Amino acid sequence: MGIKDIAKTGFHLLKGKLLEKNATGNQSQFNLNKFIGQMQEVNSVAQPSRYLVEISTPNWGLAKSEAAQRLSFFCDAVNMPGMTLAMSEFKSQGYGPFDRRPTAPIMQDITCSIMLDSNGNNLGFFQEWMLNIVNMDASKSMLSERVGTAPFEIKYRDNYLTEITITMFDMAGTAITKLTAYECFPSVLGDVALGWNSTDEIARLSVNFQVRYWTTEQLEGTAAPGPRALSGFEQLLRIGTAATSLRASLKTPNNVGDVINQVSNAQTFLKSFGGG
Question: Can you give the pTM of this predicted structure?
Answer without folding.
Answer: 0.66
